[in-house]
Amino acid sequence: MRQSVQVGAERPVKGRVKGGSEVTKVPAKGPGLELDGPLHLRHYAHQAWEEPLLPTPNVPAVEDSVASSWLAQAAVDPRAAPSVWAMNPTQPRRLLCGVLFDVVLCRQPLAEIAYRFLDLYEQPVGPAVVIPALITAAVFVPAGTEDRWPVLMESAQWPPSAPRPTCLGRQHAIRVPPLSRASASAAQWLEPPEVEEGFPPYLTGPVQLARCLVEARELLSQARSEHPHLPTSAKRARP
Length: 239
What we know:
Layout: E1 15-18, E2 21-24, H1 41-50, H2 65-72, H3 81-87, E3 93-96, E4 101-107, H4 108-120, E5 128-131, E6 136-142, H5 145-155, E7 166-168, E8 173-176, E9 188-191, H6 206-226
Antiparallel strand pairs: 1-2, 3-8, 4-6, 4-7, 5-6, 5-9
């Protein structure tokens, strides 16, 4: 029997033990949580450059029908989208922002390092897409984030003079790659949507993301001042 996504359902809150205390994971539609204590850049400066930032995304060989059904809810025609995608399995999909999610656009290295920080602090990370040719990333955040994103960036102390990551909501759209390895898209999944037991994927918390983007920028600035010949992308080059 085909499993379906429970529309409007919230995933059960999971926790992982860290230092003897429970760390709460945030549901896709739940409130954002403040990180426990400040992020210390010096603790991870060396580690972030000497090790790969993230494991290779676990994109299946065959598209997961449940995850595809979830994405289809943000398509222009949600009912027709699954069959259209099935007939064109390698083509990118156009999704409307502000329905299931908003997207935060930023430079690819910023997103890569921010996701590393989120993982180190055992915070939930949601789907994200990178477009290597444009050195750009799009991080999925809860719908409605666009309205408060400027305030979150200001609260996270993003430098006013620096180009700021932007958030796109309603009246915007994004193209994402298919949920399989066979893709003709210029975009790639940094983190594909993960559907468990029929519940929607986690989305990255905007409060946590804003703070980690600020720390990622500081790390990049520090690393480039100390190592001016570093590549544009933060990921270690593979042989």
